[in-house]
Amino acid sequence: MSNIDITSIRNQFPILHQEVNGKPLVYFDNAATTQKPKSVIDALVKYYSTDNANIHRAAHTLAARSTDMFEDTRKTIQTFINAKEAEECIFTKGVTESINLVAQTWGRTFLQAGDEVIITTMEHHSNIVPWQMICEEKGVILKVIPINEAGELLMDEYDKMLSSKTKMIACVWVSNALGTINPVKEIIQKAHAVGAKVLLDGAQACSHLAVDVQDLDCDFLAVSSHKLYGPTGVGVLYGKRELLEAMPPYQGGGEMIKEVSFEKTTYNEIPYKFEAGTPNIGDVIAFKYALDFVNEIGKENIATHENALLKHCMEELEQINKSVETYNYTSLQEQPITLIGTAKQKVSVQSFVINGMHHFDAGMMLDAKGIAVRTGHHCTQPLMNRLGLDGTIRASFSVYNTLEEIDVFLEAVKKLVVLTAKHTK
Fold it and tell me: Which of 35, 67, 200, 214 has the fewest CB atoms found within 10 Å of its own CB?
């Protein structure tokens, strides 16, 4: 394990200190949303208690304070992802809106009939549907990189897809359903070699991995606040300046304009060109405190801790399979547990199925013991179809989780295995 002070970290999260169904809460649904430290909660309360005002417009003190704090978050995210300049960071309401923004503005401007867009088998619906929509509208061909049984991209197949017709690769950096870390630097280099652009879905990656958009040389990166210990309803789209300047506005209204007349409107500079209307000011301001929380602990320390949790969980789930006699599971042909997503490079997400038990039933029974996991298709239905599944049980770990919590979870899983064995004899 790392040298982080887990007690001190857990004490920063009020929500963790409660009972659910009479049991201490074990929160393992971090891939869906992470919990919020008190610094983030306090920042929201302080903003609405002492600073609430619209930004970039009024000359009074509250507006000036709010504007400064809002823009401080932009500077913080610039440093967090190592963008060249803060203006390359656009605030959105989340990764979904960030991807739609690129598909609807860059896509409408630069895609033509016969062009090709490449995605992967493991994409979240938010990085499938926007591209399907623009491809249908423009007569563009959508191609999909396949995966192997471990949940890793078949890069040889990706190589075969690339051509002068390839215009965009929209790729998830880390799979929300499998935990797979995709080789995005290689993907980007090969895309650029044929003149294509690359958008990375960073929803899962940004809370687990070091992010350097200049080193990656990605063209776009979508970031989520609520998966990074920040509030919901906030996201960031990073884009290279030259691309953002060449793209038309996504929405029209206040803030994104320089001058409006009934005859003609001229648009604002980036990033404001893409930030029409009053933004989610309070949550953007609070997002800075989430980024500060991560920076204070350090990404390397977080990764070390989370990887130890994942290793322990995977090893113990496999141990259940090696002890089938103990659980009277001999009546079934298969092992009691099948791990879903066994890539060599993973973050702290583990999906699995208990053979003979529906994933939804397992999730409800775990919840009865105070254990929160996600069950279902995780907004990755095409991936589930590829794996021949209708869903999985997904446990996802964060910096505030402990080995002791995983042991509680594993003991509950063992009881589900025993229960399943009794009902399948």
Answer: 214
Q: What are the residue ranges spanned by the domains of the chain?
A: 6-32+298-423, 40-296
d(C-alpha 377, C-alpha 359), whole Å = 10
Catalytic residues: 379
Supply the CATH classification number for the domain 40-296. Answer: 3.40.640.10
Beta strands in 316-412 (DSSP E): 337-340, 349-354, 371-372, 374-376, 392-396
If 0-12 CB within 10 Å is exposed, 13-18 middle and 19+ buried, where does residue 423 land? exposed
- Within 10 Å of residue 222's Cβ, how many Cβ atoms? 30
Helix axes 403-423, 299-322, angle to 10 degrees: 30
DSSP 103: I
Q: Quick one: pLDDT band at residue 99, thresholds 50, 70, 90?
A: very high
Rg (CA), the chain: 23
Strand (E) or helix (H) holding 50: none
Residue 333 has pLDDT above 60, yes or no: no
Q: Could you tell me which CATH class the domain 6-32+298-423 is placed in?
A: alpha beta
DSSP 105-155: IIHHHH--TT-EEEEETT--GGGTHHHHHHHHHHTPEEEEE-B-TTS-B-H
167-205 core/surface letters (b: 16 or more CB in 10 A; e: else): bbbbbbbbbbbbbbbbbbeebbebbeeeebbbbbbbbbb
Q: Do domains 6-32+298-423 and 40-296 have the same CATH topology?
A: no
Mean pLDDT of 137-148: 98
C-alpha–C-alpha distance, residues 155 and 161, integer Å: 10
Overall pTM > 0.85: yes
